[in-house]
Amino acid sequence: MLITNVPAALLSLEEAMVVMRLRWQIELLFKLWKSHGHLDEWRTANPARILCEVYAKLLALVLQQWMIVASGWGDPERRLFKAAQVVRSSAAELASAYGHEGQFVTVLLTMARVLKRTARMNKRRTTPTTAQRLCALTEGSC
């Protein structure tokens, strides 16, 4: 059973089911941030330093997400976990390119190429991914 306040004229049952699955993708983003960002781990007992470390990690996660968006988010069949790994592995290059616009753009373009090659979902026949379901709704325009 699915309850929504969207009129049936605007959203079919099939579309509503796909939108409902998209909510899980948001949960996966928060799971990635929490578990792989190690937000619940710190190296001190000092409350002020813990707060500072949590804020630093949150800032790093926002930057990581921005880098993913800037270099490959347009592909609906990308894997967020793999994309985050690519960004983390490029962190040193990004930091060294800070303040050098041309070098920074070069690192971003390299990241985009790596994301395009490695951060892809495998197509599934029996249980399609959410991206496959979205593409099917939009008549394969993905």
Describe the structure.
65% of the residues lie in helices and 0% in strands. It contains 6 helices and no strands. The two termini are 29 Å apart.
In short:
With 142 residues, the protein is an all-alpha fold. It has 6 helices and no strands.
Write the topology of this structure.
Elements: H1 13-36, H2 47-72, H3 80-89, H4 91-97, H5 101-118, H6 130-137
Helix pairs in contact: 1-6, 2-3, 2-5, 3-5, 4-5
- Uncertain ranges: none
Radius of gyration: 19 Å
**What class, by secondary structure content?**
mainly alpha
User: Element order, helices and strands?
Assistant: HHHHHH
Summarize this structure as a short list of keywords or feature phrases:
single chain, 142 residues, 6 helices, 0% strand, globular
